[in-house]
Specification:
Layout: H1 10-18, E1 30-40, E2 48-59, E3 66-76, E4 87-93, E5 97-103, H2 108-121, E6 128-130, E7 136-140, E8 152-154, E9 161-166, E10 170-175, E11 177-178, H3 184-194, E12 203-211, E13 224-233, E14 239-240, H4 241-254, H5 268-288, E15 292-294, H6 296-314, H7 324-335, E16 340-342, E17 354-357, E18 360-363, H8 374-377, H9 384-406, H10 413-436, H11 442-466, H12 472-483
Antiparallel strand pairs: 1-2, 2-3, 3-5, 3-11, 4-5, 6-7, 7-12, 8-9, 9-10, 10-13, 12-13, 14-17, 15-16, 17-18
Helix pairs in contact: 4-9, 5-10, 6-7, 6-11, 7-11, 9-10, 9-11, 11-12
């Protein structure tokens, strides 16, 4: 990041980041080492300016710990008490005087400028509207006219990004942690929307910024692109896939004498439709992104990577040690394969990344695993990684319900464990058969088993570090692998 271009005291952003939900550095010592003003939204004026700052954060607990966060600001010449909860500070702007600064995503007046900028781009050649002085560029896909008379509502539940709904018409996701290059969420939604996929929320447009100051570092001289936000269809009446699965499991647990297929909340039909939806999405991705058949070197590298993650996890989760040989044997079977097919995939798929609408299942959030570097998230992978993520989610849902029932009825633990196994097995099987169009081949089963095991190892580390009381869920899954 180039030298700071803002007059704001960096400590203002330190205090602000510490209290946000989406800042990824909580608990780590850090300082703000740069603040760069990259542009102002068109239409600003009359006591309000809406600007976008990029804030450079440097961590003090290890080398190479630098991240860039996007902070859109609403700058008012007068205090706005309605925005006190989003107040950052009060300072003097060189060309605007003293201002009261607020997080712009909380301000409907500021968000209206974003929406109008997207709408204006639709009238430009190619659906692109670029401010040549700043490099901010709004892009619009044809086919949907935005409702400019509606108001914005900031969602409160997200963590890594921020989403704003515009009435019932559209939804804007603002990426908070910014990395140079193509954001896979925009890239994939663009391709799937253009292909007419029925299993995603259609993309309406996106905002990016070209850093002209970095043009000397690029071969084409056009500068480095950073993608800042995406605008897409708002699935207002959709139900979260995780919530539906948990409700189904809870219904089964409440029935004293019924099996999963007899309970009124049976989820198997939905699991089947979800498997079909994922297969359709993978098919479109394979048709529009490169697909490659890789040889034994690739399967060996995959097995080595999984084994290394296991070795690293053993230092964090000693309880994995009794199952290490079983897990390594699972990975070694991948090593013995003569190759695998890779393509563009979701990369972080689970029930929480799905929405059930009246028109069927939708898959959301194609950013990939947030903890991975952007370059890694753009790499092709086996589609069985996505399948494995869903199978682990089908296992988690009844286990979470099982834990909630245990608080009131300790004596019923054996029966609940049986019901949890039954729910997970039934729905995982329906999902898998629907996805594969039958039983997976021997090669596919080897890959799937390994990806499931790799995901379980990841879960043991995550739960140990974040929810220690839950680590028994993935540990029990590892134990069941050893009994299979």
């Amino acid at each position: 990041m180039t030298a700071p271009t803002s007059q704001v005291d960096p400590d203002v952003f330190v205090r602000y980041l510490e209290r946000t939900r989406w800042f990824g550095g909580k608990g780590r010592p850090f300082s703000v080492t740069g603040v760069r003003r990259i542009g102002e939204l068109p239409g600003s004026g009359d006591g309000l300016r809406v600007v976008i700052d990029l804030v450079e954060v440097t961590y003090e607990d290890g080398p190479g710990g630098t991240e860039i966060y996007q902070v859109p600001l609403a700058l008012y010449t007068e205090a706005e008490t309605r925005l006190d909860h989003a107040f950052l500070g009060w300072w003097e702007e060189p060309d605007f005087g003293w201002v009261h600064a607020y997080d712009a995503l909380h301000d409907r007046e500021a968000m209206a400028l974003w929406l109008r900028a997207f709408a204006a781009a639709a009238g430009e050649t190619g659906g692109n509207s670029t401010d040549t002085s700043s490099g901010l560029s709004f892009h619009r896909l044809a086919g949907h006219e935005l409702d400019l008379d509606t108001h914005s509502t900031l969602f409160s539940g997200e963590q890594s990004n921020s989403s704003v709904a515009f009435g019932e018409d559209s939804l804007m996701k603002v990426f908070r942690k910014i990395t140079p290059g193509v954001n896979p969420d925009i890239q994939v939604h663009d391709v799937l929307t253009s292909a007419g996929s029925e299993h995603i929320a259609a993309l309406y447009g996106w905002l990016d910024w070209v850093d002209g100051a970095a043009s000397s570092d690029t071969d084409d001289g056009r500068g480095t692109t950073m993608q800042l936000a995406m605008l897409q269809q708002f699935l207002r009446t959709a139900s979260d896939g995780w919530d539906l699965a948990v409700a189904s499991a809870r219904n089964l647990f409440a029935e004293a004498d019924l099996h999963a297929h007899e309970a009124g909340g049976d989820f198997a039909g939905e699991a089947t439709r979800l498997g079909e939806a994922l297969r359709a999405v993978h098919t479109v991705l394979a048709e529009n992104f490169p697909t490659e058949r890789r040889g034994p070197d690739a399967t060996a590298a995959l097995a080595d990577a999984m084994t290394q993650r296991l070795d690293d996890a053993l230092g964090v989760v000693p309880a994995l040690a009794p199952f290490a040989d079983t897990l390594r044997a699972t990975y070694d079977r991948v090593r013995a394969l003569d190759g695998l097919t890779v393509q563009h995939v979701h990369g972080d798929l689970h029930l929480g990344q799905t929405l059930r609408t009246s028109l069927g299942w939708k898959i959301v959030d194609f950013e990939g695993e947030p903890a991975k570097p952007l370059a890694d998230r753009l790499l092709p992978d086996s589609p069985w990684r996505d399948v494995a993520g869903m199978l682990r989610s089908f296992d988690y849902a009844p286990r979470v319900v099982e834990r909630s029932f245990a608080q009131d009825d300790a004596d019923g633990a054996p029966q609940r464990a049986y019901r949890a196994d039954e729910w997970a097995h039934r729905n995982s099987n329906h999902f898998l058969v629907a996805y594969a169009g039958g039983e997976p081949s021997d090669e596919e089963r080897v890959l799937l088993d390994a990806y499931v095991a790799d995901k379980v190892v990841y879960e043991t580390v995550y739960e140990t570090r974040n929810r220690p009381a839950w680590v028994d869920i993935p540990l029990a899954a590892v134990a069941r692998m050893g009994q299979a």
